Amino acid sequence: MHMKTRRSFLWKGRKDIKGGHCLVRWERLCRSPDLGGLGIHNLEILGWALNMRWLWLKKTRPEQIWSDLDIKINLNAAAMFACSMVSLIGDGTQTRF
Known about the structure:
Number of strands: 0
Low-confidence stretches: none
Order of helices and strands: HHHH
Structural class: mainly alpha
Strand content: under 5%
Oligomer: single chain
Shape: elongated
Radius of gyration: 21 Å
Largest sheet: none
């Protein structure tokens, strides 16, 4: 089966199409193949994961020069990071209030 035929079926359910048509929900395409999707990465969620990684690096390596960079963090990623973190106060030098 040719790529054009597959693409036409995916977007319109026919052999030939012209223009932009989408009959498949993006959420379904992002599912793993085991769950009936195509395994396409959801870039929004991947972006949240990268934002949380940045927050983790800023918290665990504050002495690094790049930890002072002002990176815009998605509010959902910041909330998820805050919910998943546990801080031990100890002597108070590593935990900010």
